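Input chain follows. Return C-alpha coordinates only.
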Amino acid sequence: MPGTKMPDNRYEKAVSYLYSLQKFGIKLGLANITHISGLLAAPQTAYKTIHVAGTNGKGSTCAMLQGILMEKGYKTGIFTSPHMVRFTERIKVNGEEISPDDVVALTEEINQAINGVDGLNPTFFEFVTAIAFLYFRKRGVDWVVFETGMGGRFDATNIIMPEASVITNVNIDHREFLGNTIEEIAVEKAGIIKRDTPVITTSQTPGALGVIRQKAGELNARLEVFGEDFDAQPIRQDITGTTFKYRGGSEFEALTIPFTGTHQVENAACAVRTAEVLFSNSTEGIELALRDIKWPGRCELVKHAGMDVLLDGAHNPAAAEALASTLRGLYLKQPFSEVILIFGAMADKDTAGMLRALMSAANTIILSAPSYERAERPQALLAMAKVLPISSTPALRTAPSIREAIKMAGKFYKQGGLVVITGSFYTVGEAKEAMGQRPLLKELAEFK
Protein backbone atom coordinates (compact mmCIF):
# COMPACT_ATOMS: atom_id res chain seq x y z
CA MET A 1 0.00 0.00 0.00
CA PRO A 2 1.26 3.53 -0.79
CA GLY A 3 2.75 5.30 2.18
CA THR A 4 3.13 2.19 4.33
CA LYS A 5 5.81 -0.39 4.98
CA MET A 6 6.28 -3.18 7.46
CA PRO A 7 6.51 -1.53 10.87
CA ASP A 8 9.77 -1.63 12.77
CA ASN A 9 10.05 -1.79 16.52
CA ARG A 10 10.04 2.02 16.89
CA TYR A 11 6.75 2.24 15.04
CA GLU A 12 5.23 -0.50 17.15
CA LYS A 13 6.33 1.33 20.30
CA ALA A 14 4.95 4.65 19.03
CA VAL A 15 1.56 3.24 18.19
CA SER A 16 1.47 1.20 21.39
CA TYR A 17 2.06 4.47 23.24
CA LEU A 18 -0.85 6.06 21.38
CA TYR A 19 -2.96 3.05 22.24
CA SER A 20 -2.07 3.49 25.91
CA LEU A 21 -3.66 6.96 25.82
CA GLN A 22 -7.07 5.32 25.50
CA LYS A 23 -6.85 4.88 29.27
CA PHE A 24 -7.82 8.58 29.41
CA GLY A 25 -11.05 7.65 27.63
CA ILE A 26 -13.08 9.97 25.44
CA LYS A 27 -13.09 13.54 26.72
CA LEU A 28 -15.15 16.02 24.75
CA GLY A 29 -13.52 19.42 25.15
CA LEU A 30 -11.03 21.77 23.52
CA ALA A 31 -8.69 22.66 26.40
CA ASN A 32 -6.12 19.92 25.78
CA ILE A 33 -5.91 20.28 22.01
CA THR A 34 -5.76 24.08 22.28
CA HIS A 35 -2.84 23.79 24.71
CA ILE A 36 -1.02 21.25 22.53
CA SER A 37 -1.57 23.37 19.43
CA GLY A 38 -0.07 26.38 21.19
CA LEU A 39 3.02 24.39 22.14
CA LEU A 40 3.39 23.41 18.46
CA ALA A 41 2.92 26.99 17.17
CA ALA A 42 -0.63 26.39 15.88
CA PRO A 43 0.12 24.12 12.90
CA GLN A 44 -3.55 23.97 11.89
CA THR A 45 -3.41 27.62 10.78
CA ALA A 46 -0.83 26.89 8.05
CA TYR A 47 -3.39 25.72 5.45
CA LYS A 48 -7.01 26.15 4.47
CA THR A 49 -9.52 23.69 5.85
CA ILE A 50 -13.00 22.24 5.41
CA HIS A 51 -14.68 20.81 8.50
CA VAL A 52 -17.16 17.92 8.19
CA ALA A 53 -19.51 16.67 10.92
CA GLY A 54 -22.62 14.48 10.89
CA THR A 55 -23.86 11.07 11.95
CA ASN A 56 -23.72 9.26 8.60
CA GLY A 57 -21.99 10.13 5.34
CA LYS A 58 -19.04 12.09 6.76
CA GLY A 59 -16.34 9.84 5.37
CA SER A 60 -17.76 9.62 1.86
CA THR A 61 -18.30 13.38 1.74
CA CYS A 62 -14.73 13.98 2.94
CA ALA A 63 -13.39 11.66 0.25
CA MET A 64 -15.33 13.47 -2.47
CA LEU A 65 -14.15 16.87 -1.24
CA GLN A 66 -10.58 15.61 -1.17
CA GLY A 67 -10.93 14.36 -4.74
CA ILE A 68 -12.34 17.66 -5.99
CA LEU A 69 -9.56 19.68 -4.35
CA MET A 70 -6.89 17.37 -5.78
CA GLU A 71 -8.44 17.55 -9.24
CA LYS A 72 -8.27 21.34 -8.99
CA GLY A 73 -4.52 20.99 -8.52
CA TYR A 74 -4.23 21.55 -4.77
CA LYS A 75 -1.98 19.54 -2.50
CA THR A 76 -4.66 18.12 -0.24
CA GLY A 77 -4.68 16.43 3.14
CA ILE A 78 -7.49 14.44 4.71
CA PHE A 79 -8.02 13.39 8.32
CA THR A 80 -10.68 10.77 9.02
CA SER A 81 -11.58 8.16 11.63
CA PRO A 82 -11.78 5.40 12.47
CA HIS A 83 -9.44 3.37 10.31
CA MET A 84 -10.39 -0.14 9.26
CA VAL A 85 -7.14 -2.01 8.76
CA ARG A 86 -4.16 0.34 9.28
CA PHE A 87 -3.68 3.24 11.66
CA THR A 88 -2.00 5.15 8.81
CA GLU A 89 -5.31 5.26 6.89
CA ARG A 90 -6.38 8.18 9.07
CA ILE A 91 -3.95 10.76 7.71
CA LYS A 92 -3.27 11.16 3.99
CA VAL A 93 -1.81 13.69 1.57
CA ASN A 94 -2.94 13.45 -2.04
CA GLY A 95 -4.28 10.00 -1.25
CA GLU A 96 -1.03 8.67 0.21
CA GLU A 97 -1.08 7.42 3.79
CA ILE A 98 1.26 8.86 6.38
CA SER A 99 4.33 6.65 6.70
CA PRO A 100 5.16 4.69 9.87
CA ASP A 101 8.42 6.68 10.09
CA ASP A 102 6.46 9.94 10.17
CA VAL A 103 4.14 8.57 12.85
CA VAL A 104 7.20 7.80 14.97
CA ALA A 105 8.87 11.18 14.41
CA LEU A 106 5.70 13.20 15.06
CA THR A 107 4.80 11.21 18.17
CA GLU A 108 8.26 11.89 19.58
CA GLU A 109 8.12 15.60 18.64
CA ILE A 110 4.73 16.11 20.28
CA ASN A 111 5.77 14.16 23.36
CA GLN A 112 8.81 16.41 23.78
CA ALA A 113 6.60 19.48 23.44
CA ILE A 114 4.11 18.41 26.10
CA ASN A 115 6.52 16.65 28.43
CA GLY A 116 6.35 18.08 31.92
CA VAL A 117 3.29 20.25 31.33
CA ASP A 118 1.20 19.80 34.47
CA GLY A 119 -2.29 18.43 33.91
CA LEU A 120 -1.87 17.93 30.16
CA ASN A 121 -2.94 14.34 29.60
CA PRO A 122 -4.21 14.10 26.01
CA THR A 123 -6.58 11.36 24.98
CA PHE A 124 -5.79 9.11 22.05
CA PHE A 125 -7.90 11.14 19.64
CA GLU A 126 -6.46 14.46 20.83
CA PHE A 127 -2.91 13.23 20.31
CA VAL A 128 -3.69 11.80 16.87
CA THR A 129 -5.40 15.06 15.88
CA ALA A 130 -2.23 16.91 16.89
CA ILE A 131 -0.18 14.51 14.75
CA ALA A 132 -2.42 15.34 11.80
CA PHE A 133 -2.19 19.10 12.39
CA LEU A 134 1.60 18.96 12.49
CA TYR A 135 2.04 16.48 9.64
CA PHE A 136 0.01 18.59 7.22
CA ARG A 137 2.08 21.68 8.01
CA LYS A 138 5.32 19.77 7.47
CA ARG A 139 4.03 18.47 4.14
CA GLY A 140 3.15 21.98 2.96
CA VAL A 141 -0.42 21.20 1.95
CA ASP A 142 -2.80 23.78 0.51
CA TRP A 143 -6.06 22.35 1.86
CA VAL A 144 -7.10 19.78 4.46
CA VAL A 145 -10.49 18.11 4.86
CA PHE A 146 -11.06 17.35 8.56
CA GLU A 147 -13.71 14.87 9.70
CA THR A 148 -14.86 15.15 13.29
CA GLY A 149 -14.26 12.07 15.40
CA MET A 150 -17.57 12.39 17.25
CA GLY A 151 -20.02 15.20 17.71
CA GLY A 152 -18.48 18.50 16.72
CA ARG A 153 -18.80 21.22 19.34
CA PHE A 154 -16.21 19.66 21.69
CA ASP A 155 -14.41 17.47 19.16
CA ALA A 156 -10.63 17.93 19.10
CA THR A 157 -10.74 18.99 15.44
CA ASN A 158 -12.93 21.97 16.31
CA ILE A 159 -10.09 24.42 16.93
CA ILE A 160 -9.63 24.82 13.17
CA MET A 161 -11.07 27.91 11.49
CA PRO A 162 -12.43 26.43 8.26
CA GLU A 163 -13.33 28.05 4.98
CA ALA A 164 -16.57 26.06 5.08
CA SER A 165 -18.40 23.79 7.52
CA VAL A 166 -20.29 20.74 6.27
CA ILE A 167 -22.96 18.85 8.23
CA THR A 168 -24.09 15.56 6.75
CA ASN A 169 -27.19 13.69 7.89
CA VAL A 170 -27.83 13.88 11.64
CA ASN A 171 -29.29 10.84 13.37
CA ILE A 172 -29.27 9.09 16.74
CA ASP A 173 -25.84 7.73 17.70
CA HIS A 174 -23.41 8.02 20.65
CA ARG A 175 -26.25 8.90 23.01
CA GLU A 176 -24.00 8.55 26.04
CA PHE A 177 -21.95 11.52 24.78
CA LEU A 178 -24.15 13.56 22.46
CA GLY A 179 -27.73 13.37 23.74
CA ASN A 180 -30.90 11.31 23.44
CA THR A 181 -32.77 13.28 20.78
CA ILE A 182 -32.07 14.38 17.23
CA GLU A 183 -32.21 17.99 18.38
CA GLU A 184 -29.67 17.47 21.17
CA ILE A 185 -27.29 15.69 18.80
CA ALA A 186 -27.78 18.40 16.16
CA VAL A 187 -26.62 20.98 18.72
CA GLU A 188 -23.32 19.09 18.97
CA LYS A 189 -22.92 18.79 15.20
CA ALA A 190 -23.82 22.45 14.65
CA GLY A 191 -21.04 23.33 17.05
CA ILE A 192 -18.60 23.30 14.13
CA ILE A 193 -20.32 26.32 12.54
CA LYS A 194 -18.11 29.42 12.71
CA ARG A 195 -19.02 33.09 12.46
CA ASP A 196 -19.32 34.45 8.89
CA THR A 197 -18.32 31.05 7.49
CA PRO A 198 -20.58 29.20 5.03
CA VAL A 199 -22.23 25.96 6.16
CA ILE A 200 -23.56 23.33 3.77
CA THR A 201 -25.89 20.56 4.90
CA THR A 202 -27.63 17.53 3.43
CA SER A 203 -31.32 16.80 4.01
CA GLN A 204 -32.22 16.67 7.69
CA THR A 205 -35.19 15.99 9.90
CA PRO A 206 -37.09 19.20 10.70
CA GLY A 207 -35.75 19.15 14.25
CA ALA A 208 -32.10 18.88 13.20
CA LEU A 209 -32.45 21.44 10.43
CA GLY A 210 -34.11 23.87 12.83
CA VAL A 211 -31.11 23.64 15.17
CA ILE A 212 -28.66 24.14 12.29
CA ARG A 213 -30.65 27.13 10.97
CA GLN A 214 -30.69 28.77 14.38
CA LYS A 215 -26.96 28.33 14.92
CA ALA A 216 -26.13 29.59 11.43
CA GLY A 217 -28.34 32.64 11.99
CA GLU A 218 -26.70 33.43 15.32
CA LEU A 219 -23.25 33.38 13.69
CA ASN A 220 -24.21 35.11 10.44
CA ALA A 221 -23.13 31.95 8.60
CA ARG A 222 -24.47 31.57 5.07
CA LEU A 223 -26.53 28.34 5.07
CA GLU A 224 -26.92 26.08 2.02
CA VAL A 225 -29.53 23.33 2.44
CA PHE A 226 -30.00 20.26 0.25
CA GLY A 227 -33.43 20.31 -1.37
CA GLU A 228 -33.66 24.10 -1.10
CA ASP A 229 -30.46 25.80 -2.26
CA PHE A 230 -29.10 22.82 -4.19
CA ASP A 231 -30.51 19.46 -5.22
CA ALA A 232 -29.70 16.17 -6.93
CA GLN A 233 -31.77 13.36 -8.42
CA PRO A 234 -30.54 9.85 -9.33
CA ILE A 235 -31.12 9.03 -13.00
CA ARG A 236 -29.33 5.68 -13.27
CA GLN A 237 -27.98 3.11 -10.80
CA ASP A 238 -26.26 -0.24 -11.05
CA ILE A 239 -23.82 -2.13 -8.84
CA THR A 240 -20.88 -0.12 -10.22
CA GLY A 241 -22.25 3.25 -9.15
CA THR A 242 -24.83 5.99 -9.56
CA THR A 243 -25.40 8.74 -12.11
CA PHE A 244 -27.37 11.76 -10.99
CA LYS A 245 -28.54 15.20 -12.10
CA TYR A 246 -27.32 18.15 -10.04
CA ARG A 247 -28.71 21.66 -9.59
CA GLY A 248 -26.92 24.29 -7.54
CA GLY A 249 -24.72 27.22 -8.45
CA SER A 250 -24.24 25.32 -11.70
CA GLU A 251 -26.07 22.45 -13.34
CA PHE A 252 -24.88 19.00 -14.33
CA GLU A 253 -27.09 16.70 -16.34
CA ALA A 254 -25.06 13.60 -15.46
CA LEU A 255 -22.51 13.27 -12.66
CA THR A 256 -21.33 9.76 -11.79
CA ILE A 257 -20.05 8.39 -8.47
CA PRO A 258 -18.75 4.83 -7.90
CA PHE A 259 -21.10 4.48 -4.90
CA THR A 260 -24.59 3.03 -4.63
CA GLY A 261 -27.52 4.32 -2.60
CA THR A 262 -29.60 7.50 -2.73
CA HIS A 263 -27.89 8.75 0.44
CA GLN A 264 -24.59 8.85 -1.46
CA VAL A 265 -26.16 11.13 -4.05
CA GLU A 266 -26.97 13.58 -1.26
CA ASN A 267 -23.40 13.33 0.05
CA ALA A 268 -22.02 13.96 -3.44
CA ALA A 269 -24.33 16.94 -3.93
CA CYS A 270 -23.16 18.34 -0.60
CA ALA A 271 -19.52 18.02 -1.69
CA VAL A 272 -20.25 19.68 -5.04
CA ARG A 273 -22.12 22.58 -3.45
CA THR A 274 -19.29 23.08 -0.95
CA ALA A 275 -16.79 23.29 -3.82
CA GLU A 276 -19.05 25.76 -5.64
CA VAL A 277 -19.33 27.97 -2.56
CA LEU A 278 -15.57 27.95 -2.03
CA PHE A 279 -14.60 28.51 -5.65
CA SER A 280 -17.24 30.94 -6.91
CA ASN A 281 -19.33 28.29 -8.68
CA SER A 282 -16.35 26.98 -10.63
CA THR A 283 -17.06 23.46 -11.93
CA GLU A 284 -13.42 22.66 -12.69
CA GLY A 285 -12.45 19.14 -11.66
CA ILE A 286 -15.83 18.15 -10.21
CA GLU A 287 -16.98 15.65 -12.84
CA LEU A 288 -13.68 13.78 -13.09
CA ALA A 289 -13.05 13.83 -9.33
CA LEU A 290 -16.40 12.27 -8.43
CA ARG A 291 -16.11 9.59 -11.09
CA ASP A 292 -12.76 8.41 -9.76
CA ILE A 293 -13.42 8.54 -5.97
CA LYS A 294 -12.28 5.54 -3.95
CA TRP A 295 -13.52 5.13 -0.39
CA PRO A 296 -13.39 1.61 1.07
CA GLY A 297 -16.00 0.10 3.32
CA ARG A 298 -19.00 1.90 1.86
CA CYS A 299 -20.95 -0.54 -0.33
CA GLU A 300 -17.57 -1.81 -1.52
CA LEU A 301 -18.01 -4.83 -3.79
CA VAL A 302 -15.09 -7.27 -3.89
CA LYS A 303 -14.37 -10.88 -4.83
CA HIS A 304 -13.13 -13.40 -2.26
CA ALA A 305 -12.77 -17.17 -2.61
CA GLY A 306 -15.16 -17.20 -5.56
CA MET A 307 -17.81 -15.17 -3.68
CA ASP A 308 -19.19 -11.70 -4.36
CA VAL A 309 -18.77 -9.77 -1.10
CA LEU A 310 -20.24 -6.37 -0.24
CA LEU A 311 -18.51 -4.48 2.61
CA ASP A 312 -20.40 -1.68 4.31
CA GLY A 313 -19.59 -0.03 7.64
CA ALA A 314 -23.22 0.71 8.60
CA HIS A 315 -23.00 1.13 12.38
CA ASN A 316 -26.34 2.60 13.44
CA PRO A 317 -30.01 2.05 12.50
CA ALA A 318 -30.15 4.89 9.96
CA ALA A 319 -27.13 3.55 8.08
CA ALA A 320 -28.50 0.00 8.31
CA GLU A 321 -31.82 1.14 6.86
CA ALA A 322 -29.99 2.84 3.98
CA LEU A 323 -28.03 -0.36 3.31
CA ALA A 324 -31.14 -2.55 3.45
CA SER A 325 -32.95 -0.22 1.05
CA THR A 326 -30.02 -0.35 -1.36
CA LEU A 327 -29.89 -4.15 -1.17
CA ARG A 328 -33.59 -4.51 -1.92
CA GLY A 329 -33.79 -1.75 -4.49
CA LEU A 330 -30.61 -2.53 -6.42
CA TYR A 331 -28.50 -5.57 -5.61
CA LEU A 332 -31.39 -8.02 -5.25
CA LYS A 333 -33.01 -6.84 -8.48
CA GLN A 334 -29.95 -7.71 -10.47
CA PRO A 335 -27.56 -9.47 -10.58
CA PHE A 336 -27.94 -11.13 -7.16
CA SER A 337 -30.68 -13.51 -6.05
CA GLU A 338 -30.02 -13.86 -2.33
CA VAL A 339 -28.07 -12.31 0.54
CA ILE A 340 -25.93 -14.00 3.17
CA LEU A 341 -25.49 -11.35 5.85
CA ILE A 342 -22.53 -11.38 8.25
CA PHE A 343 -23.31 -9.02 11.12
CA GLY A 344 -21.07 -7.90 13.98
CA ALA A 345 -21.62 -4.76 16.04
CA MET A 346 -20.65 -3.00 19.23
CA ALA A 347 -22.70 -3.74 22.36
CA ASP A 348 -23.18 -0.02 23.08
CA LYS A 349 -24.98 0.49 19.76
CA ASP A 350 -28.68 0.05 18.94
CA THR A 351 -28.04 -3.46 17.61
CA ALA A 352 -31.73 -4.36 17.71
CA GLY A 353 -32.55 -1.38 15.51
CA MET A 354 -29.81 -2.32 13.08
CA LEU A 355 -30.87 -5.97 12.89
CA ARG A 356 -34.52 -4.98 12.45
CA ALA A 357 -33.56 -2.94 9.40
CA LEU A 358 -31.30 -5.57 7.85
CA MET A 359 -32.97 -8.90 8.53
CA SER A 360 -35.73 -8.47 5.95
CA ALA A 361 -33.11 -8.05 3.21
CA ALA A 362 -31.26 -11.30 3.99
CA ASN A 363 -31.89 -14.99 3.37
CA THR A 364 -29.24 -16.19 5.83
CA ILE A 365 -27.71 -14.25 8.70
CA ILE A 366 -24.45 -15.18 10.40
CA LEU A 367 -24.15 -13.34 13.71
CA SER A 368 -20.55 -12.83 14.78
CA ALA A 369 -18.24 -10.48 16.66
CA PRO A 370 -15.05 -8.60 15.81
CA SER A 371 -12.27 -9.06 18.33
CA TYR A 372 -12.90 -5.97 20.47
CA GLU A 373 -14.03 -5.74 24.07
CA ARG A 374 -16.99 -3.57 23.09
CA ALA A 375 -18.33 -6.12 20.59
CA GLU A 376 -21.72 -7.70 21.25
CA ARG A 377 -21.47 -11.48 21.62
CA PRO A 378 -22.96 -13.64 18.85
CA GLN A 379 -25.29 -15.50 21.22
CA ALA A 380 -26.69 -12.20 22.50
CA LEU A 381 -27.32 -11.10 18.92
CA LEU A 382 -29.01 -14.43 18.21
CA ALA A 383 -31.36 -14.06 21.16
CA MET A 384 -32.17 -10.54 20.03
CA ALA A 385 -32.80 -11.54 16.42
CA LYS A 386 -35.15 -14.35 17.38
CA VAL A 387 -37.66 -12.01 19.01
CA LEU A 388 -37.58 -9.10 16.55
CA PRO A 389 -40.94 -8.46 14.88
CA ILE A 390 -40.14 -8.84 11.18
CA SER A 391 -42.17 -10.29 8.32
CA SER A 392 -39.44 -12.53 6.87
CA THR A 393 -37.70 -15.39 8.67
CA PRO A 394 -34.06 -15.66 7.55
CA ALA A 395 -31.97 -18.60 8.69
CA LEU A 396 -29.90 -17.61 11.73
CA ARG A 397 -26.41 -18.88 12.49
CA THR A 398 -23.56 -17.79 14.76
CA ALA A 399 -19.79 -17.75 14.29
CA PRO A 400 -17.18 -16.93 16.95
CA SER A 401 -15.15 -14.58 14.74
CA ILE A 402 -15.45 -12.64 11.51
CA ARG A 403 -12.90 -14.95 9.88
CA GLU A 404 -14.99 -17.99 10.83
CA ALA A 405 -18.15 -16.23 9.67
CA ILE A 406 -16.63 -15.73 6.21
CA LYS A 407 -15.68 -19.42 6.08
CA MET A 408 -19.23 -20.37 7.09
CA ALA A 409 -20.66 -18.08 4.40
CA GLY A 410 -18.61 -20.02 1.87
CA LYS A 411 -20.46 -23.22 2.83
CA PHE A 412 -23.86 -21.60 2.22
CA TYR A 413 -22.84 -19.61 -0.85
CA LYS A 414 -24.44 -20.40 -4.20
CA GLN A 415 -23.85 -18.86 -7.62
CA GLY A 416 -25.80 -15.61 -7.80
CA GLY A 417 -25.51 -15.00 -4.08
CA LEU A 418 -24.08 -11.95 -2.32
CA VAL A 419 -22.26 -11.98 1.02
CA VAL A 420 -22.84 -8.71 2.87
CA ILE A 421 -20.54 -7.87 5.80
CA THR A 422 -21.70 -5.02 8.02
CA GLY A 423 -22.54 -3.71 11.50
CA SER A 424 -19.35 -1.81 12.32
CA PHE A 425 -16.15 -0.55 10.76
CA TYR A 426 -14.43 -2.95 13.17
CA THR A 427 -16.30 -5.80 11.46
CA VAL A 428 -15.43 -4.56 7.99
CA GLY A 429 -11.79 -4.05 8.98
CA GLU A 430 -11.46 -7.60 10.29
CA ALA A 431 -13.13 -8.92 7.15
CA LYS A 432 -10.61 -7.06 5.02
CA GLU A 433 -7.80 -8.51 7.09
CA ALA A 434 -9.27 -12.02 6.77
CA MET A 435 -9.47 -11.52 3.02
CA GLY A 436 -5.82 -10.56 2.75
CA GLN A 437 -5.25 -6.90 3.57
CA ARG A 438 -2.22 -6.36 5.81
CA PRO A 439 -2.94 -4.67 9.16
CA LEU A 440 -0.63 -2.26 10.96
CA LEU A 441 -1.76 -2.39 14.59
CA LYS A 442 -5.47 -2.37 13.76
CA GLU A 443 -6.56 -2.16 17.38
CA LEU A 444 -6.45 1.60 17.26
CA ALA A 445 -9.77 1.95 15.54
CA GLU A 446 -12.38 3.57 17.77
CA PHE A 447 -15.93 4.88 18.10
CA LYS A 448 -17.76 3.07 15.24
